[in-house]
Amino acid sequence: MPIGNLIAGRWQPPERTYVRKNPSRPEEVVAEYPLSGKPEAMAALRAAAAAFPRWRQTPPIERARILQRAARFLYEHLETIARDLSVEVGKPIFEARAEVCRAAEIFEYYAAWAWQPQGFLLASARPATELRARRVPLGVVALITPWNFPIAIPAWKLAPALLLGNTVVLKPSTLGPCGAFHLARALEAAGLPPAVLNLVIGPGAPFGEALAEAEEVRAVSFTGSVEAGLRLKAMLAHRPVRLQLELGGKNPFVVWEDADLAEAARLAAEGAFFYAGQKCTATSRIIVHIKIYEEFRDALLEATRRLKVGDPLDEATRVGPLIDAAARENVQRWVKRGLEDGGRILIGGQPVDPGYFYQPTVLEGVPPSAPIAQEEIFGPVVTLHPASDLREAIAIANATRYGLSASIATRRLDVAEAFLNGVEAGIVHVNQPTAGIEYQAPFGGVKDSGYGPKEQGWSALDFYGDWKTLVVRV
Ligand code: NAD
Hints:
Layout: E1 5-7, E2 10-12, E3 17-22, E4 25-34, H1 38-57, H2 60-76, H3 78-89, H4 93-113, E5 119-122, E6 129-137, E7 140-144, H5 152-163, E8 167-171, H6 178-189, E9 197-199, H7 204-213, E10 217-223, H8 226-235, E11 242-246, E12 251-255, H9 261-273, E13 283-289, H10 293-305, H11 325-340, E14 344-347, E15 351-352, E16 357-358, E17 361-364, E18 381-387, H12 390-398, E19 405-409, H13 413-422, E20 427-430, E21 450-451, H14 459-464, E22 465-473
Parallel strand pairs: 7-8, 7-10, 8-9, 10-11, 12-13, 12-19, 13-18, 17-18, 19-20
Antiparallel strand pairs: 1-2, 3-4, 5-6, 6-22, 11-21, 14-17, 15-16
Helix pairs in contact: 1-7, 2-4, 2-6, 3-4, 4-5, 9-10
The structure holds nicotinamide-adenine-dinucleotide (NAD).
Nicotinamide-adenine-dinucleotide (NAD) binds at residues 144-149, 171-173, 203-205, 207-208, 223-225, 228, 231-232, 246-249, 280, 376, 378, 404, 445.
């Protein structure tokens, strides 16, 4: 039985469908999903608009209780959901489990905000007057999500949007809709009223066209590639729609001369290769102090050899498949291009069949300006670059159009502080992989990696809410 769209509180049997296959075993069908177009998107947006007046009047504590119950549902169904994620997008099971827990924790975190002050009171210059500010919902918000964090990303958009009293249309990627489906089920089971959340599964372009037309839409939160994000931004340019874009990265990991090299190599390999490098925050360039370059390189190759490539359902697997055949071909093209630009493969560089696997790959010898060191590959490929001083290392780190995440391995406080201050990135780590951030902190990139207010933490409340200022003569 195909999964349907959830529109106006009903799971609607789809008119057209497609099948999603398992990237580890491409002959195996995982699920059948709707291939929705503009009519379904418009119907969902209208349903969300109709549900808004009632949902905004629902007491915030009641909205929070629904998020809490949805979180419990996710914990109770943890193993099933994690397995579905792992099979559909090839995420190693230990990471899939952590992602489901993270989604549940995000729901709990935003639920807790309902017990916090909802606004503030200011002194007025006028007599007997109270000057107040209160957070209010925007209305209908559209959430567009990628396949690589199929449950955490929809959760970190949905939870603050719903808590503040907005109604939602969620459109996940066709390559990994199962996380959004499970979230919709969790919220339904938790008692979310009909049409407060609408789920539409289908390709991006018709959905973008619907958003450009639908006057109901007040805000759009998008996570995905720079190209698709900028296309969407152009489509919405004629209307005052609040827009948040979370885009790609080309994240540098710097290894300083004083670092614990075995530990730095472990962190670099984890950041570059876990989940086959398919994270926006994956390490894709490693910049190494020239004095320890060779020693670190050996340690990195050793750490890379230790990573198990294989079935994502195996507890020991750290590197699963690429998401589809096109993604693997893209990785192969990038490696070939790197060789043409003077690169040498130190390890990897080959596809592994069956399934869309690719060996974790390290290249050296390409200049930092080469396209392979400039553009997001979204696969298990990393380039090594020597640097003779910190100024040069930071200059290399900053010399791309991206600015999402960055990390440095060092025991020196002055080096760490200079890096924290000098690197152009939305998230900067010290002695940590470039990937991984906690939901209570703002998350997002600078330069071409992001546009608009940040996600997660309290910054998400600023995106999904408006301030209403009240001037009351009492
Ligand atoms: P993608 O850009 O192909 O698709 C993302 C989503 O946008 C999908 O749901 C897609 O259907 C939709 N879409 C595409 N064109 C659209 C349009 N014109 N109008 C409306 N929607 C449209 O990205 P992907 O392959 O799913 O994900 C990988 C990309 O996402 C990488 O670039 C990665 O770095 C980025 N990403 C960024 C973050 C972050 O928080 N910065 C997190 C995860 C992934």
